[in-house]
């Protein structure tokens, strides 16, 4: 198992979960890799209890899986799963959420979304794949939250860790990572325009670009 830096003794489940989540989505921990409470607790410099709780949380997020008599393993995000499960769910959910968000959009919301786009541009310029993926997820999270639809937000939060995992997995493959910010500028422009058919079309184009241009697409 690749080395993970220790964390302060006072840290609890959330810090352990954050550390493991980042290791999984960045590829430091690989699909199929076995995770044991004892080894992780030793590497992270904590007790087994927060590790056990963190693994349960990550299993709920779909990033690890526990098997009887086999322990816990890292789950990968396959291209097949992305294309046939996550993308269709995202299109349906986000088309609805963007429509509802357009009705509630105000100056503060626009400023917040523009700040995430600026983060994407800065991360792309710095070659920071993790920050790029984070800003991308935060943009979509903000729109779904703005929609004011609790069930949309609940579904989004349930798939968000795996969505971030494939954003993070592919962030290093962009031919030109600056396109990610530009794609989100087009999304924001469509959101501000409020034309429902065009907004829905732009959301679908945006999500499907990942497959049309695998080396230049975004999330």
UniProtKB/TrEMBL annotation:
Leader peptide range in chain numbering: none
Domain HTH gntR-type as annotated: residue spans: 10-77
Protein's name according to its UniProt entry: GntR family transcriptional regulator
CDD domains: WHTH_GntR
Gene3D superfamilies assigned to the protein according to its UniProt record, in alphabetical order: GntR ligand-binding domain-like, Winged helix-like DNA-binding domain superfamily/Winged helix DNA-binding domain
Assigned keywords, A-Z: DNA-binding, Transcription, Transcription regulation
Origin: domain of life: Bacteria
Species of the source: Leucobacter massiliensis
Protease is among the record's keywords: no
Gene Ontology MF annotations: DNA binding; DNA-binding transcription factor activity
């Amino acid at each position: 198992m690749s080395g993970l830096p220790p964390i302060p003794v006072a840290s609890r489940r959330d810090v352990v979960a954050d550390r493991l989540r980042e290791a999984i989505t960045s590829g430091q921990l690989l699909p199929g890799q076995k995770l044991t409470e004892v080894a992780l607790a030793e590497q992270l410099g904590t007790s087994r209890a927060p590790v056990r709780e963190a693994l349960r949380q990550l299993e709920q997020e779909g990033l690890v899986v526990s098997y009887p008599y086999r322990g816990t393993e890292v789950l990968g995000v396959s291209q097949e799963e992305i294309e046939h499960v996550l993308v269709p769910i995202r299109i349906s959910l986000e088309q609805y959420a963007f429509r509802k968000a357009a009705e509630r959009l105000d100056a503060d919301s626009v400023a917040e979304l523009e700040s995430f786009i600026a983060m994407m541009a800065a991360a792309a310029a710095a070659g920071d794949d993790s920050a790029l993926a984070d800003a991308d997820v935060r943009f979509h999270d903000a729109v779904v939250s703005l929609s004011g639809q609790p069930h949309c937000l609940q579904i989004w939060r349930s798939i968000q860790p795996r969505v971030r995992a494939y954003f993070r997995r592919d962030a290093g493959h962009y031919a030109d990572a600056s396109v990610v910010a530009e794609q989100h500028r087009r999304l924001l422009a469509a959101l501000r325009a409020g034309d429902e058919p065009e907004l829905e079309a732009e959301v679908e184009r945006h999500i499907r670009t990942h497959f049309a241009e695998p080396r230049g697409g975004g999330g």
